[in-house]
């Protein structure tokens, strides 16, 4: 099986980045984290990547006069390093249709809600305001419309009485760290692929059981 060269794009401390790096260290993982790239030179995740022996590069979006010129520099850096696949991990830039089109079917993101619920920001606050009893996270392919791409994997957590944004965020983040490497492995192994705007899975899974809240 071909080992995919993966780039992780970050803007901050990179907690999901760390979970991907740790998973990719496994001898049987079908991908290599070849690059960590940030639009912020002061992003804490860059040093964490260097400490793990991974090339870490900053391309400061503020140094470019337009969004397009920044993305052209981003695209050139990725292609110079023969990157096969991109994982967005807290990359706080809305990407243009041009960049998304260049990497169509080869870029995924993790979002802290059960999409299509609560696209955008402040997902935990909105979940609490809406009174949902189940919340979670989603890995999806990136499309030009924000947080609207085909879904690869989801994990759910209960919302319990007394939850705050912070307490709910902690439980969701713990699931993100488990879900993102699992989804990336499935894609690299060809067990989940994009076909006609939907994710097609190579194998089924059990439909038994359910998360119930309250339980």
TrEMBL record:
Q: The Formyl transferase N-terminal domain covers which part of the protein?
A: 5-184
Protein name, please?
Answer: Phosphoribosylglycinamide formyltransferase
Pfam families to which the protein is assigned, alphabetical = Formyl_trans_N
Function, please? Answer: Catalyzes the transfer of a formyl group from 10-formyltetrahydrofolate to 5-phospho-ribosyl-glycinamide (GAR), producing 5-phospho-ribosyl-N-formylglycinamide (FGAR) and tetrahydrofolate.
Binding-site positions, (6R)-10-formyltetrahydrofolate: 67, 109
Residues flagged as site, Raises pKa of active site His = 147
Question: Does Transferase count among this protein's keywords?
Answer: yes
Residue ranges crossing the lipid bilayer per the database entry? none
Catalytic activity of the protein: N(1)-(5-phospho-beta-D-ribosyl)glycinamide + (6R)-10-formyltetrahydrofolate = N(2)-formyl-N(1)-(5-phospho-beta-D-ribosyl)glycinamide + (6S)-5,6,7,8-tetrahydrofolate + H(+)
> Which InterPro entries would you find in this protein's record?
Formyl_transf_N (IPR002376), Formyl_transf_N_sf (IPR036477), GART (IPR004607)
Family designation: Belongs to the GART family.
Instruction: Please give the pathway this protein is involved in.
Output: Purine metabolism; IMP biosynthesis via de novo pathway; N(2)-formyl-N(1)-(5-phospho-D-ribosyl)glycinamide from N(1)-(5-phospho-D-ribosyl)glycinamide (10-formyl THF route): step 1/1
Species, as recorded: Microvirga thermotolerans
């Amino acid at each position: 099986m071909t080992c995919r060269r993966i780039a992780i794009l970050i803007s901050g401390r990179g907690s999901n980045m760390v979970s991907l790096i740790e998973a990719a260290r496994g001898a049987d993982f079908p991908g290599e984290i070849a690059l960590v790239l940030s639009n912020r030179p002061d992003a804490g995740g860059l040093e964490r990547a260097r400490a793990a022996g991974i090339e870490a590069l900053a391309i400061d979006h503020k140094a470019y006069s337009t969004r397009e010129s920044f993305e052209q520099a981003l695209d050139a850096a990725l292609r110079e390093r023969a990157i096969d696949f991109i994982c967005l991990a807290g990359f706080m830039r809305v990407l243009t249709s041009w960049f998304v089109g260049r990497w169509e079917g080869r870029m995924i993101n993790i979002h802290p809600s059960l999409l299509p619920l609560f696209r955008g920001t402040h997902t935990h606050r909105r979940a609490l305001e809406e009174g949902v009893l189940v919340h979670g996270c989603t890995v999806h392919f990136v499309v030009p419309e924000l947080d609207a791409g085909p879904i690869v994997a989801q994990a759910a957590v209960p919302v319990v009485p007394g939850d705050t944004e912070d307490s709910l965020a902690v439980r969701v983040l713990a699931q993100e760290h488990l879900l993102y490497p699992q989804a990336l492995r499935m894609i690299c192994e060809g067990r989940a692929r994009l076909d006609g705007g939907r994710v097609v899975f190579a194998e089924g899974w059990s439909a038994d059981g359910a998360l119930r809240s309250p339980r």
